[in-house]
Design brief:
By secondary structure, the protein is an alpha/beta fold. The protein is built from eight helices and 16 strands. A six-stranded mixed β-sheet has the order 1-5-6-7-4-8, covered by helices on one side. A six-stranded mixed β-sheet has the order 9-13-14-15-12-16, covered by helices on one side. β2 and β3 form a beta hairpin.
């Protein structure tokens, strides 16, 4: 099974990642890559992931700013992790040498070439930070509007009706208790990116039953996902919960349960997902009278969400273009034959375990 997630995402409170559960673990050996843009970190990880994919389960973690760029790879059978340890997801060894090791790709560049371009590099990096900061502000504003919509929607819920459906759904999906508790993991399936609010929908191909929760205003979907996840854990199943990071990691957008091949996926105007599988109409769990009383507020928020989502994506795309400028300076100064040797050494060490 091959899976794709985001390493983390921008939230109203800044960048958030749960990837530390691997990096800080003594169950995995982690290679923490250090180096600037253009030093080959993503390419190195891609080569290693491709090399081991035929023999084991590989999970790829991508950059939320640029979903085309790898930020981390987990090789589950080999118990090995390779991750980009530079900002905004800075990682450092917790158990140096024994469980983690820093791999300095900066050792492969020509310092004299970079010093000659000092003013250009400093200017490009400062411009990139400025653009990312602006994108973060748009993202934070989008998060505030999403929160207001959620608060409004929560007041309109028919909780008794929704609770009854949650119980019936759980009985339908799960069998007898397995006699022990399952575990809950956080996996970021959707994030705000240069392409807009983006979801790795190809990960859903691993699941036999994908239920699309058709809901414009978040609240009912969050309750159903939380209830099913809690029931699954109680019955002994491991679950993967994907939060909507625009809510600061406080609201769940998707749920994946590998052992029974079931996924619950929110399909909303925010993520733009189309219901390609089994549809659950979540609007029936809102009280019509209260919905009507709040429809103007919800309609205005929906328009603001579209505007802010587009603005955040456009600003992040401009930041990516500036990132490409930075990359070119380092690419020109890199000895990629040396990087390839590092890649081969890491692959050899993993294979030898």
């Amino acid at each position: 099974m091959s899976e794709k997630y985001f390493l983390g995402s921008m939230t109203p409170g800044g960048f958030v990642t749960q990837f530390g559960e691997y990096v800080n673990s003594d169950s995995f050996y982690t290679y923490v890559l250090k180096g600037a843009a253009g030093t080959g970190k993503s390419s190195l990880m891609k080569k290693i992931a491709d090399r081991f994919e035929e023999s084991e389960n590989v999970t790829r973690y991508y950059c939320s700013s640029d979903p085309d760029s790898l930020d981390g790879v987990v090789l589950h059978s080999s118990k090995a992790v390779i991750v980009d340890g530079t900002a905004p997801h800075t990682f450092d060894p917790v158990y140096p040498g024994s469980c983690q090791r820093v791999v300095d790709l900066g050792s492969c560049w020509d310092n004299s070439m970079l010093k000659d371009k000092k003013e250009d590099i400093v200017g490009a990096i400062r411009k990139h930070k400025e653009l990312m900061s602006c994108g973060a502000k748009y993202t934070a504003a989008l998060g505030k509007i999403c929160e207001d919509t959620f608060c409004c929607a929560e007041q309109c819920l028919d909780k008794q009706k929704l609770d009854g459906f949650c119980k019936r759904f759980c009985k339908k999906v799960f069998g007898k208790s397995r006699g022990y508790r399952g575990r809950s993991f956080t996996r970021c399936l959707s994030a705000m990116t240069r392409y807009g609010y983006y979801t790795f929908s190809e990960t859903l191909d691993n699941y036999l039953d994908v239920y699309y929760l058709c809901n414009d205003i978040f609240a009912a979907s969050n309750i159903l996902i939380s209830a099913v996840a809690g029931y699954a854990v109680q019955k002994g199943y491991d679950v993967k919960l994907s939060p909507c990071m625009l809510f600061g990691n406080k609201l769940y957008e998707h749920l994946l349960i590998d052992e029974i091949g079931v996924a619950l996926v929110s399909a909303s105007p925010l993520n733009g997902l189309e219901a390609a599988g089994k549809r659950i109409n979540m609007s029936r769990f809102y009280q019509k009278t209260l919905w009507q009383e709040n429809k103007d507020r919800l309609k205005q928020n929906a328009a603001l969400m579209r505007t802010l989502k587009d603005a955040a994506g456009q600003m992040m795309d401009k930041a990516k273009q500036q990132h490409d400028v930075i990359e070119r300076y380092y690419i020109n100064a890199m000895d990629f034959n040396a990087v390839e040797k590092i890649c081969e050494k890491i692959s050899g060490e993993i294979s030898a375990k």
